[in-house]
User: Which sequence fits this backbone?
């Protein structure tokens, strides 16, 4: 029978997660039923939810964990203050866990290893703290960041004051005791639960559902839907392929408000040294992945059970597409290693060839499923 290893339970974290979740599904609906929501409460919720999420994505994640750009102190201070309000630990601890995640993704030393199950990656790793505590040796650079170390010391106090007391006080100033309760429940409790689970979904859902156009060596996936709820962090396959790029949604049409904010702040002189992977290297990764997927597909089609005149025709087409892409891949690889400028026309042509091959593989998978 399944037994909960109570000896390993991190009680403080667990009680916090369970209490805030319970209040969100009981006290919050009761409050809304009785008092409804006015524009002030809605605006305050939206502000706190966005400021907290963006502080995790822009500050904790892309700035501190990946050093994908440099930021002036006001940006650091804002993200450290509102990052504390997410109650996802200090930036120092968060960064250490996250760097381990990238280094050991899908393996034992990955704190939110998806191979241990969806719920483990989502929340289980927080409830059952790992014993013995692992030494924090991958964040030496942060010891020199005075603001970051100050936040590490006072993170719970900052989170409590700014994330719970301030919205309660603002609610009170707006409409008395009822407003105070609304501020506490909506911009405090509910906002914490929503922001936390959106972050947790990156570790669980974005390692389970979605496409892998850049690399299938790990479980990270691109999800446009999750990007909406996480200020652009849903493009997780790209992020694991190129973790030092300040962009996660790298295509112009992809929804990545964190990227837009970092870029806007750079125009205001508040962020500098924005790190970008070149278009050529990104396309090279996409081509390599398309070629690998084609090779896997051809290997399946080559088995006697799959032998059929129609599949043979599809396989021949796939082989042609793949061969053409291999030639283009070699050409682009040579250009990249020799640092030769590639024309826009050639890039567009290779992008088209890659898309065609990926589409062809998807169609073949679709047909295989419908005929099964
Ligand atoms: Zn990940
Ligand atoms: Zn990351």
Assistant:
């Amino acid at each position: 029978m399944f037994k909960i290893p109570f000896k390993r339970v991190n009680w403080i974290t667990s009680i916090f997660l369970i209490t805030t979740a319970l209040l969100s599904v009981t006290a919050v609906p009761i409050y809304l039923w009785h008092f409804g929501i006015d524009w002030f409460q809605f605006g305050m919720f939206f502000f706190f939810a966005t400021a907290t999420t963006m502080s995790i994505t822009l500050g904790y994640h892309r700035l501190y964990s990946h050093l994908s750009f440099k930021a002036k102190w006001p940006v650091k201070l804002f993200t450290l203050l509102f990052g504390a309000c997410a109650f996802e630990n200090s930036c120092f601890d968060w960064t250490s866990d996250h760097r381990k995640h990238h280094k050991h993704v899908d393996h034992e030393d990955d704190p939110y290893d998806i191979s241990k199950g969806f719920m483990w990656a989502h929340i289980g790793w927080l409830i059952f703290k790992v014993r013995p505590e692992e030494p924090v040796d991958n964040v030496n650079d942060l010891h020199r960041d005075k603001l970051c170390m100050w936040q590490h010391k006072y993170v719970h106090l900052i989170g409590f004051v700014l994330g719970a007391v301030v919205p309660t006080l603002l609610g009170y100033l707006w409409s008395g005791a009822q407003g105070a309760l609304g501020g506490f429940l909506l911009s405090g409790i509910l906002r914490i639960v929503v922001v936390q689970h959106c972050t947790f979904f990156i570790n669980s859902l974005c390692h389970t559902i979605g496409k892998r156009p850049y690399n299938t060596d790990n479980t990270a996936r691109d999800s446009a839907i999750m990007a909406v709820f996480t200020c652009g962090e849903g493009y997780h396959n790209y992020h694991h392929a190129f973790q030092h790029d300040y962009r996660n949604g790298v295509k112009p049409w992809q929804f990545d408000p964190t990227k837009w904010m970092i870029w806007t702040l750079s125009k205001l002189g508040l962020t500098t040294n924005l790190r970008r992977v070149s278009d050529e290297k990104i396309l090279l990764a996409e081509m390599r992945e398309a070629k690998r997927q084609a090779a896997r597909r051809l290997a399946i089609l080559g088995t006697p059970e799959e032998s059929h005149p129609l599949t043979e025709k599809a396989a021949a087409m796939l082989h042609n597409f793949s061969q053409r892409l291999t030639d283009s891949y070699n050409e682009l690889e040579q250009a990249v290693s020799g640092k030769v400028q590639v024309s826009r026309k050639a890039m567009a042509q290779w992008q088209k060839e890659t898309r065609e091959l990926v589409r062809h593989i998807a169609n073949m998978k679709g047909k295989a499923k419908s005929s099964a």
